[in-house]
Amino acid sequence: MSASRLPGTLVTFEGPGGVGKTTVTALVAELLEADGVPVHATVQPSRSPLGEMARHGTDTYRDMALACLCAADRHHQLAIEIMPALSEGKVVLCDRYVASSLVLQGLDDIPLDVVWALNHGAYRPDLVYVLSDAPADVESRLRARGGHSRFERTPGSSLRETYGYLAATTFLHDQGWPVQVVDCADDPRTTAGTIVDLIHRILTESPACP
Question: What is the pTM of this model?
Answer without folding.
Answer: 0.91
